[in-house]
Design brief:
125 residues, Aspartate Aminotransferase, domain 2, 21% strand
């Protein structure tokens, strides 16, 4: 949070960090909207897109961040000092998953949609 004092007033600017673990697993024809698609959102926040759910990489701790550059730099510095980064082979697997993703992600969404229908979750009350 940035706080500036001007003429005796305190101005607070909220910083938003949104973790998107399920962002690509939607069950309708309409793709969910990104927080960053809102005008001005990039100035105050970031989205951390986790590969854990979409690519079945739970526990791998692989993700990427988009949005406000200063928040991304801060997160990068924190991660480098706190955990030392992500193991190289996991980075390679993550890059492969992201570059070969379209068909697999669509198939996974369809599978979840079928399972949801089988369980009757789609029924309106």
């Amino acid at each position: 949070m940035n706080i500036s004092l001007e003429d005796g007033e305190i101005e607070k600017i909220a910083e938003v960090i949104l973790i998107v673990a399920y962002g690509d697993l939607y069950y309708t024809d309409e793709k969910p909207h990104s927080f960053l698609s809102i005008p001005g959102a990039k100035e105050v926040g970031v989205e951390i897109y986790s590969l854990s759910k979409t690519f079945n990489m739970a526990g791998w701790r692989s993700a990427f961040t988009v949005g406000n550059e200063s928040i991304i730099r801060y997160l990068g510095s924190y991660l480098q000092n706190a955990v030392g980064g992500v193991f190289g082979n996991i980075q390679d697997a993550s890059a492969f998953a992201l570059s070969h993703q379209s068909a697999e992600r669509a198939a996974l969404r369809e599978q979840y949609k079928k399972e949801k229908a089988l369980l009757g979750i789609d029924k309106k009350n």
